[in-house]
Specification:
Strand order of the largest sheet: 1-4-5-8
Largest sheet: 4 strands, mixed
Number of helices: 14
Number of strands: 8
Structural class: alpha+beta
CATH topology of the largest domain: Butyryl-CoA Dehydrogenase, subunit A, domain 3
Oligomer: single chain
Distance between the termini: 35 Å
CATH class of the largest domain: Mainly Alpha
Length: 419
């Protein structure tokens, strides 16, 4: 199997639709949503849910395992490639808006990576329901950020009721409010909570539990006020004696030497880190394209193909930004292609995330720098893109953590050997 660099027809069609949405629904209200943090643009949410269902993509941004029609020619899987292209285009429109697009997010990705066929059928199918639906991942805690082995949330099995009783506190949960709190206009979402069933077993004792919206004992306690992606809600969630059905645990409910619950988390991130990269690339592309427009309006054309010593400083900067952006996209494309073809992609996933985190930050910063006062002012969206860009390097594994993952993969070290 080889990577195709020409986008398949379904992806091209989806991109055309999403570009219209990005231009007409997202860019026009980017500033308003940035200033009214946590407001929910219901028109956008309901439109995207309906539009994506009508195009066969489910009711939002979620991987749907396509079943070929009888007699139809079998084609290579493109689920993650399609999702990456969707996310890149929506983030080009506005990354905060992208993060409130209905869909499963990391929560659904965890179910897809570590859930049984029955769990996938139960929880992932709801994203095709009549109402927009969300899911979120709850891993980070006040004392456990990048070091996930420090997680203190605990799940204990109540053998009398055959339920898991979960206690703990989770922070920085993207879309946590819409995934857990019950809104009249939303379907029944869920959060995936990482907790230990045996603290003495270390990472082997970690398991993920699907906690459905409205579960007693679970409460959204805070919404963060942030530097960027301000349209998206980032929540703190407490769990006090929250009871979850036995069958809602992802993976085996017992600790065995051959079973490492932590692998479920890593499998989730291997699939989704390239999607974070795609989002950052969308933000950087927005800044670079608009920068070129503003330069052209002021009579500055970028003369591609000239020797570097005959170019102006600005031309060299813009061409370097182009090169960085394309290299990041190619690394992302390889990572999602591997995910689609079920090839181990831990190295490529983290590499794409590291590269995109660097490139997105540098490209948006350079765009602000080149435009000077106009880039720094609020007249245009450059300063917002600069603020939005940094999250690419932070969530789903910081740049430092992903560099460690890359180094361990290349050098053959374990986590304990290289920290």
């Amino acid at each position: 199997m080889t990577i195709e660099f020409e986008a398949p027809k379904p992806i091209v069609q989806m991109q055309a639709m999403l570009k219209t949405v990005a231009e007409n629904m997202m860019r026009s209200t980017s500033r308003e949503m940035d200033e009214n943090e946590h407001a929910i643009p219901w028109d956008y949410v309901e439109f995207m849910h309906t539009a994506m269902r009508s195009m066969g993509g489910g009711g939002g941004l979620t991987i749907n395992e396509e079943k070929p029609k009888e007699g139809a020619e079998k084609r290579p899987p493109i689920g993650y490639q399609k999702l990456a292209a969707q996310i890149e285009m929506l983030s080009w429109g506005d990354v905060g808006y992208y993060l409130i697009t209905p869909g499963g997010g990391l929560g659904a990705a965890a179910v897809a990576a570590a859930g049984s066929p029955e769990q996938k059928a139960k929880f992932l199918a709801r994203f095709n329901d009549d109402k927009p639906t969300y899911a979120a991942m709850c891993m980070t805690e006040p004392g456990a950020g990048s070091d996930t082995s420090a997680i203190r949330a605990r799940a204990v099995l109540d053998e009398k009721t055959n339920e898991w009783v979960i206690n703990g506190e989770k922070i920085f949960v993207t879309a946590g409010d819409k995934s857990f709190n019950e809104y009249e206009k939303l379907g029944k979402g869920f959060i995936v909570v990482w907790a230990s069933i045996d603290p003495t077993a270390g990472r082997s004792g970690m398991r993920a539990f699907v906690v459905e919206s409205g579960t007693p004992g679970v409460k959204v306690t805070k919404l963060e006020h942030k530097l960027g992606i301000r349209a998206s809600d980032t929540a703190s969630i407490s769990l006090v004696d929250a009871r979850v059905p036995f069958e809602n645990v992802l993976g085996k409910p017992t600790v065995e030497k051959s079973t490492t619950g932590f692998k479920g988390a890593m499998a989730t991130f291997d699939a989704t880190r390239p999607l974070v990269a795609a989002s950052g690339i969308g933000v950087a592309r927005a800044a670079l394209e608009f920068l070129k427009e503003k330069l052209a309006e002021n009579g500055v054309e970028i003369r591609y193909g000239l020797p570097r010593n005959k170019m102006t400083s600005i031309e060299r900067d813009v061409i370097d930004m182009d090169i960085q952006l394309r290299s990041a996209w190619l690394m992302t494309l390889k990572a999602v292609w591997m995910a689609d073809n079920k090839k181990p992609n831990a190295l490529e996933s983290s590499m794409s995330k590291v590269r995109a985190g660097d490139v997105t930050t540098k490209v948006t910063q350079k765009a602000v720098e080149i435009l000077g006062p106009l880039g720094y002012s609020r007249e245009f969206l450059f300063e917002k893109w600069f603020r939005d860009a940094k999250i690419t390097d932070i969530y789903e594994g910081t740049g430092q953590i992903n560099r460690l993952v890359v180094a361990r993969q290349i050098l053959g070290y374990t986590g304990a050997e290289l920290r």
